[in-house]
Structures are given as structure tokens and as C-alpha cells.
Amino acid sequence: MFQNAQITTEIPDIDQLNFLKIHKNYLWILLFNSAIVWIVIFIAYYFLIDHKYAEIYPKFSNYDYIILAIIVIIYNVILIAGFSRRKYALREKDISYSSGILIEKLTTVPFARVQHLEVDQKPISRLFKLASIQIFTAGESNDDLKINGIPKKEALKIKEYITNFINE
Amino acid sequence: MNNSFNFSSFSRQSSKGIIVNYSLIFYKSLKSSWVLIPLFFTKKPENFSATKILLSIALILIYILVRSILLYLNYKFKVKDNNFVLKHGILKKTNVSIPFSKIQNVKFKQNFIQQLINVTEVEIETAGAKTVEVSIKALTKERAEALKEVLFSDKKTENVEEILIAKPPTELLQISPFELFKVSISENHFHSFLLLFAFIFSGYVQLKDLLGDLVINNKLDVLVEEKANSLIHDVFLVSILLLFTFIISIIISFVRTFLKHYNLNLSLKDKALEISQGLITKQHNIIKKEKVQYLVVSTNPLKKIIGIYNVVFKQASSGKVKNNKIVKIVGAKMNQLSILKNILFGKEIDENQEIFVPNKYYLTQMYFRSFLLLVIFNLFTLISINFLFINLIGIPLVILLINLKYKKSYFKLHTNILEIGSGQFSTEIIYFELFKIQHIKMRQTVFQKRKNVTDIILQTASGKIKIPCINKMLAIELFNIMLYKTEISNKSWM
To answer: What sections of the protein cross the membrane (chain B) (predicted)?
Structure first.
């Protein structure tokens, strides 16, 4: 498509990545986290809106709990459906992560631009021996690459590979 | 190189630094405590005797003096093994060491007091994971120049020949007051207009809070309430206010442009661009070619007629993009622009490259989003029917802006440069070296997926660049090329 297309035949194609799915146990962690959040919201709603401030905030309708439940179901359906979209791919000189069902995202970081890496484990992830790897580049570092829910061994291997690449 | 200054052992800045420190601390404490000043007047006067007030002021002034002397005494720097070493701090001692290679920019500054006592402030900027900013408040002009040369010396040793032929700086651009006048009159006044309007509005709200109990205010409210019913009166009042704000915003544009860009001078010296500008605070920037992440050239219809362009140099920054990492010059002419592009990118920009425009879906997307916004705005009509008038101006304006935005967005792929056009009333063109991406992202909503288009977001060390709604095939190809160029390049991106 571009005029200098002669090089395009030999360059690696992002469309043919060998994606690896993240560990399926991570779904349980996601669901567990979501359960905690929604339970807190339900309790807060029950005690604050429904009981304590019932006079100030009139109940919206008799179906408010049903509406809330529908929101929870939609949220979790998106979570579960989106889970299979979370995948990553490692190539010789870059790492890619793809996710999202309503908004599909694919991010690729060339190793040559990596500033530093972090592998960390949250308490619940530790039970499943899962870890997350976060890759920082220069500039606004708020949405660099972060892959959650990969086996700790795998995460450390990736970390070592990239660290070696940078130090070469 | 100037050898009359020796930086190998620790040395202090010029003793005039005490004066600079003094004024800075004085200004800072005044700035942070001005809120308290009205308190002195509201309290009952018998609690304060003249001697007490004078005594406390004297004590504060002495404290500031002692502090500025101590600051001066404890601020030492030297150059060792291609590192700039700085020791500072009165109680909390800090030791900073910056390798020359990490130095991104050396800036000279002079505020009003520094100009009076004839000293220069030197700022050393770095980019990286942690921000280290060094600012030496007072050096003589000669010493500052010598320090700058030492700090940049490791770059020169790489090719010795260039030091021997110490080329005098080549003048690239010089803006006279008359040209600056043209620049400020063609400025986009809308921006300062909005700022001013927000300022007046918030000022009014605060004033109202402050004078809440005053009788005059009540009277005013009654007056306003009475008149509020007549719509003609409202329109008249608003249009006078708008005209007034507009005139002031033009004046502000003038003052801002002259303060910031007075005596603008751009020259090329030893492969680095030197820019100096400013009326009261003189700014002196040195931009190394490789540190420029990308270049933004902007103009607007009025400027286009006169044939002048603004240029912004975006450099690497850590954390949030700070204003001082963005160096802007104004009033560049077409031929000066192409010289500048040649210096930064070589002769790579080929005007005849194929132009790629966004997919038609981009228009649909923008219309859809503004439609949602418009619906929300129209909810206000439930409060007052007067809000319907917003639609009268709003809808044509939005349609115009959307179409302008669509027409002005395009991109061109040169051999090593990506050229991205955008803008609404103004026109902005970004020139970006392919290998300088930090990471690259493809983003596709479900609606975009149906049309097989996608957004591309390039993360640079100086913020994001978005290429909206291009065909998926094209996006993948661009994605591949950019990654490929980045991965085979061994040039330093900063």
C-alpha cells in the first residue's frame, strides 16, 4: 500500500502473532475481585440509601435491586467474555498484549525502548502462583504495557529475557 | 573552549546569588502568605502596636537573609569524570550526580533581579525515570557559558575535528518587533478569550461569596432580577460583555506574545539549536537535534495569508509533560521552516508522497459523539427554555468544526518520517521520526470493527500522537513498518 513497499515483504507482520492466552485461573481471581466490589456496593446501598437516608433519598423504584443485579450480570458477562481476549505474544525484539471486547486494544513495546520492568504478585495471585509483569517506557507512563495473570515462572523468564536484551 | 574557569573542584555560585536567593524566598513567602494579609486589617487594631508589627517584619526579613546566605554557602558544584556533581541543602544534605550523557538541555534564564545585578541562571534538565532538575541561580555570563561548554564537551570529543573548526553560530531566524506585532495580531484570540471569560466568571462567583452579606449586593441582585425578564436587555448586556472580553483578550495576546517571544533569535551552533527569547525573563534554550522527539508546525488561516508559522519542539519529558520542555518559536517563514526541517531530519521530507486520509467512518464517529453531547446540553432546556438558543449557534458550529477536522487530518509516510496533519480552524502538522516511538497501540471499538477501521496511537517520550480511523490493512502495515524501523535502529532516541 505504501510506496516503499519493497521492505514490507520482509518485515515481521503484527497480524500473524502467535498469541498466548493468560492462565485460566486468573479468571477466578477476576471474578473474586468483582464479587468483593459488588458485595460492598450492595451492602452500601442496603444500609445507606435503603435504610439510613431513606427519607432524604426516596427509593427510585421497587425494582432497584433487580436493576443493580442486571448491571452486575452485564459486568460479569463482559468480564468473562473479555477474558479470552486477554492474550500476549513475545517476539524476538518486542512484546505485545491484546485485550478488550468493547474496545479492542493491541499494544506493542519494542524491547529497545523499555526503561524498566516490574514483576509483582498480589496476595490472591500468590495462591494460584500467578504474577503480573509491567513494562515501563519513557514519557507518560500511565498506560504502558501490563500483563496480569501469567504463571510466575513465565513472568520471570520474560523479565530475564528483556533485561538481557536491554543490557546487551 | 574557555579555560579561564575551572570546574574540577567544588565551587560556589557568584556571591550575588545571596541577593537572588533573598528575592526568591521573599517572593515565595509573600506569595504563600498574601492570603493572611487581609487578616491584619480585619482584626481589631489595639492588638497591634506599630513597634510589634515592625519588629515582626524585621525578624522575618532577617530570617530570610540568614536562610539565603546559608543556602548560598551550602550550594556547591563541580565537574568530575564527565559527571556534574552538586551538593546542596542546609539541613537535609543532597548529593546529585548527573552524567553528561543524561543532560538533555542547558537553559539560561534571567529574571528581572538577575538582569539588574547582571547574573545568569543556569538550568540543567534531564529526562529519564527520575526527574533531576538543577538550577544554579547566579553565575556570571562568562562562567555560565564556560560551564555549558564543559557540560556539552563529551559530545564533541566524539569527533575531534569539529572542535578545531569551532564554527560561529549560523543565524536561522530573527524576529523583529514589527514581525512580532504581525504574529500577535494573527494569534488565535479565542483561546485567551475563553480563559478570560472563565477568569471573570470565577472571579464573579468568588466575589459574590465574599460580599454575600453586603447590602449593595442584595440591591444588585434585586436589580438584576427585575431586568432578567427582558430578553433584549440580556442579549444587549451579554454582547457588550463579550465585546469587552474580546478586546481585552486581544490585548492579552499582545502582551503574552511580546513577553515570551520578544527579540526571538534562533541559530545553529555545533549541531544544536540555540533559541533565545523573552522581554522581562530572557529564556535561552539549547536543543540538541537528537533530543527533539517531534516537531509541530502550526498555522491558522490569518497566519497562512501572511505566510508565518509557529514551531514547537517537543522534547523528552518524565512524568507529566512540563511546559518548560516544550520550546516554541513564532513567526517562522516558509523557507526558514524548510531549512529547520532539513537540519532536524535531513532531506527526507518529500512533498510528493502519497496522502492517506481517514476513513469516512471518522466523520460518522464525530457526528455521533457530538450528537450525544448535544442531547445532554438540550436536557438543560428542561430547566430554562432559553438554553434552546445554544442550538442555534451550537449546531452549525459543531458541523463546521467536524468537517474542518475531517478535512485537515491526513498522514504521509516518508522514508523515516511520519507526517501527521490535524486541526480545525488552525492547521497542525507533526513531523515524527519513525524510530522514536516508545510503544505503539492499535485501538478498535466494536463500531469501528464493523467498518474495519482502527485508531493508531503512538506513544512518544513527549506525549501521545493519535492517527484516527484508518483502514485496518493500512494500520497494520504502518504498525509493522514503525516497529521494524524502531527495532533495526541503533540511533539513540534522546
So the answer is: 20-41, 53-73, 190-207, 235-259, 389-406
ipTM of the complex: 0.86
Asked whether the beta carbons of residue B480 and residue A116 sit closer than 8 angstroms, the reply is: no
- Please tell me whether residues B224 and B269 are part of one structural domain: yes
Tens of pLDDT along B220-279?
A: 555 555 555 556 666 777 677 778 888 888 888 888 888 889 889 888 887 788 888 888
Q: Which residues in A30-42 are b (16+ Cβ under 10 Å) and which e?
A: beeeeeeebeeee
Domains identified in chain B, total number = 3
> CB distance B439–A144 less than 8 Å?
yes
Closest CA to B368 of B457, B427, B446, B473: B446
Helix H segments across chain A?
25-44, 64-83, 123-127, 152-167
Q: Nearest CA of chain B to the CA of A130: how many Å? A: 25
Residue range(s) defining the domain that contains residue B465: 352-415+433-494
Count Cβ neighbours within 10 Å for each residue of B238-275 and write b for 16 or more, e otherwise. Answer: eeeeeeebbeebbebbbeebbebbeebbbbbebebbbb
The cell numbers describing B57, all together, are 517584619
| B389 shares a domain with B319 | no
Q: What is the mean pLDDT of residues B445-472?
A: 92
- Write out the CATH class of domain A87-167: mainly beta
Q: Are residues B261 and B116 in the same domain?
A: no
pLDDT in tens, B123-145: 887 655 445 567 888 888 888 88
Nearest to B476 among A15, A93, A115 (CB): A15
**In chain B, what residues touch A145 (CB-CB under 8 Å)?**
439
- The answer to whether the CB of B25 falls within 8 A of the CB of B68 is yes
